[in-house]
Design a protein that fits this description.
With 223 residues, the protein is of the alpha/beta class. It has helices spanning 13-24, 36-43, 85-103, 129-141, 179-189, 213-218; strands at 5-8, 30-33, 48-51, 69-72, 107-111, 147-152, 154-156, 165-168, 176-178, 198-204.
């Protein structure tokens, strides 16, 4: 069982679910946070907090010391300004990658987005977010780190576990994915045999059935 997991973006809408799932499965995750009070209110003593900001590389070295896994659930919240896609989804990921290289992190799990190779997609109108997410992916893919890049479909707040899941590669599918199912995928990456250096899309299928995690991960091929 992996012991030292750092989650960046752990107080966000998806990140909170990831952190709670980790706790529910016996992990004691570490969180990279800007607002310690918010994180403490959310998770209490079930997590270890590290002050840091992905936009400031100098704040990332200490939090990543001794970490075996880094999960990045960060995401921009404004098309322009200090929290824009360029600053967060590209430069923030690049800073995390550089710090993970320095500290010898064993596995980097990055939550990206479906359609990042399709700049004409309507989502890209939000500060060129798909373009910047793709650049962030490329930094990780060329880093030499062991990585898993998850490209979820459009995120929903519906309950997870109800629909079958589809894993695809090549950025040719569209669809939606519940945040709860995305959190479960992150959790399964920690335990299922997963190829190193792999990028894949994840969406919900129409039929109602539980995910067969072994089959899903066995279908993936490295980049």
């Amino acid at each position: 069982m992996v012991n030292n997991i750092l989650v960046a973006g752990g107080t966000g809408r998806t990140g909170q679910i990831i952190v709670r799932d980790l706790i529910a499965h016996g992990y004691h995750p570490h969180l990279l946070v800007r607002d310690r009070d918010k994180a403490t209110a959310l998770f209490g003593e079930d997590v270890t907090l590290h002050q840091g900001d992905v936009r400031d590389f100098s704040t990332l070295i200490e939090p990543l010391a001794g970490m075996e896994v880094l999960i990045s659930a960060i995401g921009s919240c404004s098309p322009v300004g200090k929290n824009c896609p360029k600053r967060v989804d590209y430069e923030g990921v690049a800073n995390l990658v550089r710090a993970a290289q320095i500290q010898g992190v064993g596995h980097f799990i990055l939550i990206s987005s479906i359609a990042v190779t399709h700049p004409e997609h309507p989502l890209n109108r939000f500060g060129k977010i798909l373009d910047w997410k793709r650049k962030g992916e490329e930094i990780l893919q060329n880093s030499g780190l062991n990585y898993t890049i998850i490209r979820p479909g459009g995120l929903t707040d519906t309950p997870g576990g109800d629909c079958a899941l589809v894993f695809s590669q090549g950025d040719q599918v569209l669809g939606t994915l519940s945040r709860e199912d995305l959190a479960q995928i992150c959790l399964q990456v920690l335990t299922e045999p997963t190829p190193p250096h792999v990028t894949f899309e994840a969406i919900e299928a129409c039929e109602k059935q539980a995910a067969n995690w072994s089959e899903l991960f066995a279908s993936l091929v490295p980049d």
